[in-house]
Specification:
Elements: H1 2-8, H2 11-23, H3 29-58, H4 66-82, H5 85-93, H6 101-114, H7 120-127, H8 133-155
């Protein structure tokens, strides 16, 4: 397929493509990976500290401390997004901020902020899940399918 695409390009287009490729700056992959690891790890470290906080001071178990921890991380992410700080962190860290739940909250909040001038219903409500909608849909579908498989295994006596 790559040869077909090359054949469709004129000589000038191929020459320009080669010219641009030679002058494209090298991507600092190692540096980007380290930044993503540091920021994503810091977010997870904050999450672990919150879990320990809820277990120590509110008597939650390991299992029940997860929900308030996620809620607080989402709240922090939304506040930082509203202040414009989260986007600066994400610009520096790359995928390190996109992977944890905070990245999901940021995508929902930033879309809502972007369209708030169009009104609450058509602006915020209609555009809030533009970026995150596909994640929600595929997450729900995957959970449904896994639930069906789990139920089938339970009924079949394989579990």
């Amino acid at each position: 397929m790559a040869t077909k695409a090359k054949q469709k390009l004129t000589w000038t287009q191929q020459e320009y493509k080669q010219f641009a490729k030679e002058r494209e700056p090298a991507r600092p992959v190692l540096r980007n990976c380290i930044r993503a690891f540091l920021v994503g790890g810091t977010i997870c470290l904050i999450g672990q500290a919150l879990t320990l906080f809820f277990k120590t001071y509110f008597g939650f178990t390991e299992r029940t401390a997860g929900n308030p921890t996620v809620a607080v991380l989402i709240l922090i992410s939304v506040i930082l997004t509203c202040l414009g700080v989260y986007d600066k962190i994400a610009q520096w860290a790359g995928a390190g901020t996109a992977v944890p739940v905070t990245g999901f909250a940021n995508s929902v909040c930033s879309a809502a902020l972007e369209h708030r001038s169009e009104g609450l219903v058509l602006g915020v409500g209609g555009n809030m899940f533009k970026l995150a909608g596909s994640v929600i849909v595929f997450g729900v579908v995957a959970a449904f399918i896994i639930g069906l498989i789990h139920m089938a295994l339970e009924i079949g006596g394989l579990k």
